Amino acid sequence: MNDQWKSDSDLKKKAKKFFELARNSVVTDTAQIPELFSRGGFRMLGGLMFSINEETAHSQHELVARCVKLLEAKSAHENEIENLAWDCVQNSLAGEDVSSDIEKIAADFLNALHAHIQRQYQYVSPNNIIRFQGAVAQLCIGPVEALLASNHLPKLFEANKILSWSLGSKFEMTISVPGGVSFEFPPVIWRVSLQAAPGHIEEEATWLINIAISLLRLSYPTNKNYGLFPKNGARELHPVFPSQMHKQGITFADGNASYGGGAVGGLYEIDSDVIAVTESPVFKSRAKAIFSPNRRSLGERFGQGLGWLTRGRQSADRAEKFLFFFTAIESLLSSDDKTAPVVQTISRYVSVILQDDTKLRSQLAGKLKSLYAIRSGLVHAGVRNVSNSDVNIIQHVTESIYWVVMDRIELTTSFIDFHESLSESSYGLPWMQKPEAPCVI
Q1: Closest residue by Cα to residue 331 from 252, 397, 402
Q2: Dihedral sign from CA coordinates of 307, 237, 127, 274
Q3: Are residues 337 and 441 in the same domain?
Q4: Last residue of some domain: 235, 262, 292?
Q5: Helix (H) or strand (E) holding 14
Q6: Same-domain status, 414 and 327
Q7: 358-399: pLDDT as tens digits
Q8: Rounded Cα gap, residues 271 and 142, in angstroms
Q9: Please, is 87 exposed, middle or buried when counting C-beta atoms within 10 Å of its C-beta (0-12, 13-18, 19+)?
Q10: Which helix (H) or strand (E) covers residue 43, if one does?
């Protein structure tokens, strides 16, 4: 992320106002301390006590809110921004950089915040959904890697003397006395390279993993069968957190009780054929367009939708699955034109992508409109009238349009040009080139 946000005049104005108020809020009269403790309007920092009145609290809120608006959501963690600002207040009074120059203090804060959000991290977590076959030991999808723990954890832990690790069946952390920390990892792990606020790292890394999984799913070889491949309609294992796949509770009826059972989630088996796909120039080009997209490109929207696709497969609730799959469709096909009729436009575009025959297009568009009616009842009235068939159909349609779009058009294409091509084909023309194989296993 560039640093143009630091030049925002409103941000500078709000920063200077906050630092003026905060510096003047130091408690010098010890007689005030009991009252401050009783009402809670204070902050302790570096041996100093600050009285936080309504004006100072409002100014702090305004500064943090402006930072959040200017920065990307993944970089803007409110508590971290607040703490950085108060660190600058403390340093200006009795810390490392004592100063009364408000312009300088504000500039120091913006520089500290910029350095804070530019830091690169590696997130390592258990991998619950990838199984390597044969000699395969590594899978790379943009900034997301699936790795054999035994091959890569030694390097990651060698610089951390108080941390140790071992192989097991699941992820566990054990704290020992006097201060050692041990981690147990399953055989396969995720390693994600990312830039985010520390408070958002787990969430953002998991989102990148979700994007990678859907890209992998849509790229599988179609000339062979993978028996553990998560099927359409089946609940997919969460890639990081353990999932409760067995039923919780007991059902009683007519004097009988039923309990137990459940479903074992599928796995993505990674063999040499899958690796060959992911190491191909075409796949790498797609991954780059998705994980490092140009602004307002098709790849930017495509990547957003892939994450929602995975969320839909992970959900155990029919209504949630339904909404997540529709979110994926709208991520790819909704227009920036707020006056365009959403249901009509998206239903038409789906039919254009999946069918060249005008009669079949009309039938498919009609089906999408009926599913949209169910979605509308769910979103606007809370009506959970979603059947398993509805969910399975919308999953198949959604994954199909993503596969066809990925197959027919470069993801570096501008989003506007992509939409214009769909609009032109809406009058009966074929859209791009017909793929030879179906998309969903």
Answers
A1: 402
A2: negative
A3: yes
A4: 292
A5: helix 9-23
A6: yes
A7: 899 999 999 999 999 999 999 999 999 999 999 999 999 999
A8: 18
A9: middle
A10: strand 42-45
**Contact between 236 and 310 (Cβ < 8 Å):** yes
In this structure, the answer to whether residues 153 and 256 fall within a common structural domain is yes
Are 104 and 59 within one domain? yes
Sequence-separated contacts (24+) of 337-345 with Cβ below 8 Å: 343/369, 343/372, 344/369
Would you say 36 and 51 are in contact if contact means Cβ atoms under 8 Å apart?
yes
Q: Which of 395, 253, 424 is nearest to 310 (CA)?
A: 395
8-state DSSP, 65: H
Using CA atoms, how far residue 57 sits from 15, 22, 35, 45, 47, in Å, is 13, 9, 17, 16, 20
Angle at the Cα of 326 from the Cα atoms of 417 and 370, rounded to 5 degrees = 105
Number of domains in the chain: 3
Write out the residue range of the structural domain in which residue 166 sits.
119-292
Q: Residue 92 is encoded by which pair of tokens?
A: 């200006």
pTM of the model: 0.90
Bridge partners of 125, per DSSP, are 190
CA distances from 353 to 90, 138, 406, 419 (A): 59, 34, 11, 11
Three-state DSSP state, 179? coil
Q: Retrieve residue 432's tokens.
A: 């791009």
H or E stretch covering 253? strand 250-253
pLDDT digits (tens, 9 = 90+) for 256-309: 888 877 666 789 999 999 999 999 999 999 999 999 999 999 999 999 999 999
Do residues 183 and 319 share a domain?
Answer: no
Residue 265 to residue 242: CA distance in whole angstroms: 11
Rounded to an integer, what distance in angstroms lies between the CA atom of residue 411 and that of residue 142?
15
Tokens representing residue 404 in the block: 């066809």
Query: Which of 185, 182, 177, 121 has the alpha carbon at shortest distance from 148?
Result: 185
Measured on CA atoms in the order 334, 336, 342, 346, is the torsion positive or negative?
negative
C-alpha dist (Å) from residue 151 to 131, 137, 148, 185, 320: 15, 8, 5, 12, 38
DSSP result, 299-336: HHHHHHHHHHHHHHHH--SHHHHHHHHHHHHHHHH--S
Residue with structure tokens 């992820």? 171
